Amino acid sequence: MPELPEVESVRRQLAPRVEGRRIVAVTATPQARFVAVDAAAGRRVGAVRRRGKYLLAELDDGLELVAHLGMTGSFRFRGGSDGWQPDAYVRASFTLDDAVMDFRDVRRFGTLAVVPAGDYRGLATLAALGPEPLSDDFDPDRFALALAASRMPVKPWLLTQRPVAGVGNIYADEALWRARVNPAARRVGRARARVLWAAIREVLAEAIEREGTTFRDYRMVNGESGRNADFLVAYGQAGRPCPRCGTPLRRTVLGGRGTTSCPVCQRR
DNA sequence: AGATCGGCCTGGACGC
DNA sequence: TGCGTCCAGGCCGATC
Known about the structure:
By secondary structure, the protein is an alpha+beta fold. It is built from six helices and eleven strands. Helices cover 24% and strands 23% of the residues. 41% of the residues are buried. It has two domains: 4-126, MutM-like, N-terminal (N-terminal domain of MutM-like DNA repair proteins, Alpha-Beta Barrel); 140-261, Helicase, Ruva Protein, domain 3, CATH 1.10.8.50. It binds a DNA duplex through loops.
């Protein structure tokens, strides 16, 4: 489940392999989440950036390729030392000057769209995306205001991507645990918001250093797994003792998402 | 307008 | 063994 650290790890490996290359041809299986992918053919690729969980590749002629890995998306290159060969789950292929890049996506939750640069009208979440958590745009006071702007429970509100970009189910559980914030809290005070602000930045930065969290499908461009899974203390750890207080962590469902938290440390 | 919910999609885990 | 059921999850569109 690629979130910001996973997408950033992909971006770092992807950028040097596509920037400056021309996309000679594109093939894509028809699916609702692919929009105008053919328009990438013939264009040269500029900078590859990331916003939240989205990859943004600048193209010639004022266009932009937007990619979201969904749950199981990955980019792989043929003919390399990792031995990658396309399989039945390749949904799109980009022939470059010097390589063939496949977009593999078992569950088809991924998005590929070619749009006029910056025109995200068809991508509501990207259009309303909150600040980048590891940039100066992510300000603790404004984050506190953003949290106060909704009466939703704090965790589902984080997952909308509006208070901050790139936090998904894994890192939401981790950051809330670290900041001792109850995921179901509908009000988070200024002081607590600041602690959560710092926790989000720490959790994401540490996960980037470990190149993301792999359970099964997430792979970097070179086929390797991230190393962060062994460091999770909350997500997926229900029943295990809280590393802070020893109370068994509890699994609940919040906004339809599995949620793990400490009933003592994260009391309201 | 904001909040909520179901649908999308597939493999794997689980129960019988 | 084989079948059925449920779950995971981000995002989007419909509905309340």
